[in-house]
Design the sequence.
């Protein structure tokens, strides 16, 4: 599986982006 390391790193970046979006949403809700 050559694409496995790239996919796992992309997944980590996607998770961090989702956390950042959730943080922005919660700030605007307050």
Sequence:
């Amino acid at each position: 599986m050559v694409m496995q390391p790239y996919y796992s790193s992309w997944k980590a970046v996607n998770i961090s982006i989702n956390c950042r979006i959730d943080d922005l949403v919660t700030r605007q809700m307050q």
User: Anything to note?
Assistant: The CA atoms of residues 11 and 17 lie 10 Å apart. The two ends are 45 Å apart (CA to CA).
